[in-house]
Amino acid sequence: MGGEERSEKTRRVVFVTVGTTCFDALVRAMDSENVKKELLAKGYTHLLIQMGRGSYVPTKSEGEGSLSVDHFTFSSSIADHLRSASLVISHAGSGSIFETLRLRKPLIVVVNEDLMDNHQSELAEELANRKHLYCASPQTLHQTIADMDLNSLLPYTPGHATPVANHINRFLGFPDD
Amino acid sequence: MSLMEKANDCCFSSVLSIATLSSAAFVVTLILVRVLYVIYCSSRPLSKRASKPVSTLIILGSGGHTAEMLNLLAVLQKDRFKPRFYIAAATDNMSLQKALLLENNLASESGTDVAVTAQFMKIYRSREVGQSYITSVWTTLIATVHALWLMIKIRPEVILCNGPGTCIPLCVIAFIFKVLGIRWSSIFYVESIARVRRLSLSGLLLYKLWMADQIFVQWPQLQQQYPRATYVGRLM
């Protein structure tokens, strides 16, 4: 009973999201022993996977000295899952990336190398260079988790659309406010 | 006699063909000059001060694109940019819903009817994510015909778009309308924040064809690559 209470307090959730895409390579990587081992070593207790349109179903697990694993396909409350997570592992879609960064959650972005037009790595790499997140591939994910130092990540300051609006107004001949 | 007739005939047909050719050349030159004039005018701010609201077409992408566009709409003066027409891909249900939510909030704040200030429409998509470039030529053609119908109905003064491909047919038609003198619209393209080093296909097309009045980019290194683009910082 006391153990139960304690585990609620020290519950540290890793939330994995692939958005509306199909990204089996990431789900499979999350299900692999070496990734789970590294997460456990870092003190995470729960793994929750949003698997989207993917067909690979990870094995559920209850915990008991290992990582507790659960999964679902889609949810309207992704924001709640992000909020309650201690670490977010996401596909490289800009929506997921900026939603996570705005919530100031540590983030590892995994780039889907199977996409035809793989421009998505551009954004993830740029933000990784600026130390707002970590960038990995499904193959290197376990290494990234092992090497990461979440204290070295810098908080992201959201941008603003006012400069664009000003340009458009001036171009059309509207007076400045 | 018959020889002379033949010679006359021959002479007449050659004159005719020269006349056809030169008039065709004249028309082509005229169109070319007009196109160049439209491009020249588009690259410069409108000369007269705007006093009336401008009818605005907002082309929504999907997912991240829509989020960026809504961030821009949040700071745009709604009394200047009205009425607003929203167009999204037929396969994308979320984007129009989000725009409708925004417009409903605006309407309830100002106590007006949404139907007066905003309209929502769907368009066939020119290219799905992951579709090959070759088959997208055909689907773009179908989308263009549908786009023509919508543009004839809307004839916007301002077009705001930020990709993906949905905006290309609409922008091409808007440009042709400018050349033909049907309607002058200012086309603004905001490249997605996801593009750090290279423009997207839509952005590149509008840039290379000189079709957008202004192309905004969100990363300085992208502006260095495409000097005619304007760097505006991050929207997200």
Automatic annotation (TrEMBL), chain A:
<dbReference type="Pfam" id="PF04101">
    <property type="entry name" value="Glyco_tran_28_C"/>
</dbReference>
<dbReference type="InterPro" id="IPR007235">
    <property type="entry name" value="Glyco_trans_28_C"/>
</dbReference>
<feature type="domain" description="Glycosyl transferase family 28 C-terminal">
    <location>
        <begin position="13"/>
        <end position="166"/>
    </location>
</feature>
<protein>
    <submittedName>
        <fullName>UDP-N-acetylglucosamine transferase subunit ALG13 homolog</fullName>
    </submittedName>
</protein>
<dbReference type="InterPro" id="IPR052474">
    <property type="entry name" value="UDP-GlcNAc_transferase"/>
</dbReference>
<dbReference type="GO" id="GO:0006488">
    <property type="term" value="P:dolichol-linked oligosaccharide biosynthetic process"/>
</dbReference>
<dbReference type="GO" id="GO:0043541">
    <property type="term" value="C:UDP-N-acetylglucosamine transferase complex"/>
</dbReference>
<dbReference type="GO" id="GO:0016758">
    <property type="term" value="F:hexosyltransferase activity"/>
</dbReference>
<keyword id="KW-0808">Transferase</keyword>
From TrEMBL, chain B:
<dbReference type="InterPro" id="IPR013969">
    <property type="entry name" value="Oligosacch_biosynth_Alg14"/>
</dbReference>
<dbReference type="GO" id="GO:0043541">
    <property type="term" value="C:UDP-N-acetylglucosamine transferase complex"/>
</dbReference>
<protein>
    <recommendedName>
        <fullName>UDP-N-acetylglucosamine transferase subunit ALG14</fullName>
    </recommendedName>
</protein>
<keyword id="KW-1133">Transmembrane helix</keyword>
<keyword id="KW-0256">Endoplasmic reticulum</keyword>
<keyword id="KW-0812">Transmembrane</keyword>
<comment type="similarity">
    <text>Belongs to the ALG14 family.</text>
</comment>
<keyword id="KW-0808">Transferase</keyword>
<feature type="transmembrane region" description="Helical">
    <location>
        <begin position="57"/>
        <end position="76"/>
    </location>
</feature>
<feature type="transmembrane region" description="Helical">
    <location>
        <begin position="132"/>
        <end position="152"/>
    </location>
</feature>
<feature type="transmembrane region" description="Helical">
    <location>
        <begin position="172"/>
        <end position="190"/>
    </location>
</feature>
<feature type="transmembrane region" description="Helical">
    <location>
        <begin position="12"/>
        <end position="37"/>
    </location>
</feature>
<dbReference type="GO" id="GO:0006488">
    <property type="term" value="P:dolichol-linked oligosaccharide biosynthetic process"/>
</dbReference>
<keyword id="KW-0472">Membrane</keyword>
<dbReference type="Pfam" id="PF08660">
    <property type="entry name" value="Alg14"/>
</dbReference>
<dbReference type="GO" id="GO:0004577">
    <property type="term" value="F:N-acetylglucosaminyldiphosphodolichol N-acetylglucosaminyltransferase activity"/>
</dbReference>
